[in-house]
Amino acid sequence: MYRIARVLGLLALGWAVANSQTEVSEARRYHDALDASRQWTERAEAFYRLTSAGETANTRGKPWSSLPGTLAAQPDAGDQVRLDLIRALSMETAWMNSQATLPESFTNYHGDLLAAVASLSDVRSCPVLLQLVDSGNMALDALAGFGEAALDPALRMLAQGPAEITRLSLVRLLAKMAEPTNLIRMTRPDSRNAISAALILSLKDPHPFVRLAAVDGLANLKDPATLPPLENVAAEDPFRSPATPTDPGSYIVRQRAARAVLEIGRRR
Question: I want to staple 27 with a disulfide (CB 3.0 to 4.6 A). Which of 77, 153, 167, 265 is the partner?
Fold first, then answer.
């Protein structure tokens, strides 16, 4: 009986070693695939092969969810995999920006790669995620947790007067940074004031949804010093949503600002 158990144990150990070696080789193959002279389709194939190494029944078809299992299975190669994924996202984003049109398969792959990199919560991905700040909540949520590493370049980008969609994304990012769970990641005493000042300035943005995002950010900060500009918006913001046969329209920015004033006022 003892011999049988010992043999089974050795077989299990051999399987684990072989499996680990396979996963490490996938990490190596992925590293080698990140050659700019190769087609993106080859890099995509290597990406999906890599992430499938950590796949379970619950994460099948979701590469970003399978990634923790892949990294846990090969701790020695984990950091190189992280760096390779960040590098890959930079490469694919640069290629994407050089194209007039994109195949749907590339768009799906790029979205999966973005989700994988965002899930790493690795501050080294900050530059490429800022390039993709307009892509939605995956990039914004990751960036919001990076503290000043993301705050400082985001403020510089906003000060340069970018296009409307990027202004909205950056102000939404600042609003997320103002949430308590992200605000505690700031290490400089002046960072809170820098966020507040940028949000107050954005209350005067010509686009109503940028102003709305700024209101939400100030509501997250809950700073009584921001009450005067919020009260001004609550009284005078000009935007009114278009009327429909069933809805006369409403001053949504004013309403949101008035609610923020009440919430902040209760904390005084």
Answer: 77
Are 81 and 71 in contact by the 8 Å Cβ rule? The answer is yes
d(C-alpha 85, C-alpha 46), whole Å:
11
3-class SS of residue 239: coil
Radius of gyration of the chain, Cα coordinates, nearest whole angstrom: 24
Number of separate domains in the chain:
1
Mean pLDDT by 10 residues, the chain (268 residues): 46 42 67 80 92 80 83 82 96 96 97 96 98 97 98 98 97 98 95 98 98 98 97 97 86 97 84
User: How far apart, in whole angstroms, are the C-alpha atoms of residue 27 and residue 120?
Assistant: 16
44, part of any domain: yes
Q: How far apart are CA 133 and CA 170, in angstroms?
A: 7
Q: How many CB atoms neighbour CB 53 within 10 A? A: 23
Domain range holding 106?
Answer: 19-120
Q: Is 80 domain-assigned?
A: yes
| 27 closest CA partner among 112, 66, 87, 84 | 84
> Considering Cα of 40, then 44, then 45, then 49, what sign does the dihedral take?
positive
What predicted TM-score, i.e. pTM, was given to this entire model? 0.86
90 occurs within a structural domain = yes
- Asked if residue 252 lies in contact with residue 239, where contact means CB atoms within 8 angstroms, the answer is yes
Q: What is the pLDDT of residue 4?
A: 47
pLDDT of residue 37: 62
- Give the model's pLDDT for residue 74: 75
**Cα-Cα-Cα-Cα dihedral of 225, 229, 233, 238, to 10°?**
-160
